[in-house]
Structures are given as structure tokens and as C-alpha cells.
Write a structure and sequence with these properties.
Length: 296
């Protein structure tokens, strides 16, 4: 085909070409494909029309316009540090981190300009208020409870912005050097007190054990004395029974026999060369022999 023929062909079919182009443009403007991680806010004449979810969406060409493309992925605010004063007047520096995601883009777009700055300011105020209600020891010991409380309060505060707070973390609680030194002194004093208490308890236990040992020894000595007394009582009973059975002579015989044994022991002493025997002793010998004869 010559150039003139091509021009004539285009001139005769110009209307069809324009209609095809217009149809392509309408289709291009009317069909919107939204990624899975986004939501699109559509306006018509400057007013909110709809929010397009992931997938293929249809809008009115040339009337509806996608003004905002909002990511619904979870986001993390930069770590922030803020000063706070505890209930017992201790200055602490709290480092926090917040994770959130946008659930209602139409609220986020039309109700707040800088989402990150607004959430950071809200978190800082809530952290200061909550730590101001707690002592320093409670802040350290109940960190999980404090995190849960902060998360609930932040969620309530940002609900009107179409935002969901997924996590709120307290990364660290730092103290100034003066407070650290005071806490170290307190810790050392507590350790010294515990050592003294442990030593005192050990001494008390030693005294208790010694007293128990003395009591045990006294009990055993008393038992021994009781056994000796029982033996003496038994011997006395035997002697008394013999006297009751054989009369007074049996007792005199026992006394005379003891006297003879005593003299015998005195005579066998290593330093005794001469032994003076009193007349009563000789009498005892005689009585003993007479009793023996009487017995035989």
C-alpha cells in the first residue's frame, strides 16, 4: 500500500479508531487491581466514595479517582525514649517500641495527618502517666502488666484513627547514675544484713544443739542414777527379806563380815607394815566365827 492509500484508510476509519481508544481508556480507568498488602481510597468530586480491597475492583471512569494508596502491613515506630518520674520520685528513662497496622484507611486519611508522630506522642504520655502511678520496684517487677496496660490505653486512644496496635514493648528502663549508686548501697546493705541474720541463726542453732546435747546427757545420767537406785533398792529388799526370814542374826553376820573384809583390805595395803587392830575388830572376828559355827 502506498502512503496515500494508508492516509485514506485512516481518514475513513478515524471514528472507529477514536472509539476503540476511548473504550480502552474507559476500561483502563474503570478497572483497578489492588495488591494484597494495600487498600485504595476512592474519591468522587473530592468526597470519599469507597475503599477498594485487594483484587479486581470497578469504579466509574473519570468520576472516581484513587486518591490514597494505603499499606495495611504491620509497621514499627522508631524506638523512642522518654523521661518519667515514678511514684517514689525516681527519674527513669523508658525506651519503648510500638507496632501497629492500619485497618480503616478512610479514618486514617481524613482524621490524622502524621500517624507515626501522633502514636509516638500518645505512647509517651501514657507511659509517663502509668509509671507515675507505680514505685520503681513495681516498674521493674511488673513490666509485663505495665506493657499490657499501655497497649490497652494506646489502642483506646488511636481507635478513632482506624489503627490497630498489635504490640507495645518496654525495651529498657534506665536510671541516672546517682540512683544507681544509691540502689547499689542499698543492695550491699541488704546483703550485709542477710549475712548477719544467717550468722545469728547459725549461732542460735549451735546453742540449741549444745543445749539439746546437755539435756540428753542429763537424761542419760538420770536414767543411770535411776538404774543404780533400783539396784540398791533391790539389794536392800533382798537384805530386808533375809532379815525377815532369819532374824537379827543375819544382819549381825553381814555387819561382822563387812568389818572382816575391811580389815583384810587394810592389811593388804602396800604402805602398811604394821596394822593395829582395835578390840572391836577382834570382837567382830569372834562374832563372825560364832555365827558361822551356829550356822553349821
Amino acid at each position: 500500500m502506498t502512503e496515500d492509500q494508508i492516509i485514506n484508510l485512516l481518514s475513513s476509519n478515524l471514528i472507529y479508531i477514536l472509539l476503540a481508544f476511548l473504550l480502552f481508556l474507559v476500561i483502563f480507568k474503570g478497572i483497578k487491581i489492588v495488591p494484597q498488602s494495600e487498600q485504595h481510597v476512592v474519591e468522587r468530586f473530592g468526597r470519599l466514595r469507597s475503599v477498594l480491597g485487594p483484587g479486581i475492583n470497578f469504579i466509574v471512569p473519570f468520576l472516581d479517582v484513587v486518591r490514597h494508596k494505603i499499606s495495611i502491613l504491620e509497621r514499627q515506630l522508631p524506638n523512642a525514649s522518654q523521661d518519667a518520674i515514678t511514684k517514689d520520685n525516681v527519674l527513669v528513662q523508658v525506651e519503648t517500641s510500638v507496632f501497629y497496622r492500619i485497618t480503616q484507611p478512610e479514618k486514617t486519611v481524613y482524621r490524622i495527618r502524621d500517624v507515626d508522630a501522633a502514636i509516638a506522642t500518645t505512647v509517651a504520655g501514657i507511659v509517663r502517666a502509668e509509671i507515675g502511678k507505680m514505685d520503681l520496684d513495681d516498674v521493674q517487677a511488673n513490666r509485663n502488666q505495665l506493657i499490657s496496660t499501655i497497649k490497652i490505653l494506646v489502642e483506646s486512644a488511636v481507635d478513632d484513627w482506624g489503627i490497630e496496635v498489635t504490640r507495645a514493648e518496654i525495651l529498657d528502663v534506665n536510671l541516672d547514675q546517682a540512683t544507681r549508686d544509691a540502689m547499689l548501697q542499698q543492695l550491699n546493705a541488704e546483703r550485709a544484713r542477710r549475712a548477719q541474720v544467717t550468722e545469728a541463726e547459725g549461732q542460735r542453732r549451735a546453742v540449741e544443739l549444745a543445749a539439746d546435747a546437755e539435756l540428753y546427757a542429763a537424761q542419760k545420767a538420770a536414767e543411770a542414777r535411776r538404774v543404780e537406785a533400783d539396784a540398791e533398792a533391790y539389794a536392800t529388799g533382798v537384805v530386808a527379806k533375809a532379815i525377815a526370814d532369819n532374824g537379827l542374826e543375819a544382819a549381825q553376820y553381814q555387819v561382822a563380815l563387812k568389818q572382816v573384809e575391811s580389815l583384810n583390805a587394810l592389811g593388804q595395803g602396800p604402805s602398811s607394815s604394821t596394822v593395829l587392830v582395835p578390840a572391836q575388830a577382834l570382837e567382830a572376828f569372834g562374832n563372825a566365827f560364832n555365827m558361822l559355827k551356829g550356822k553349821s
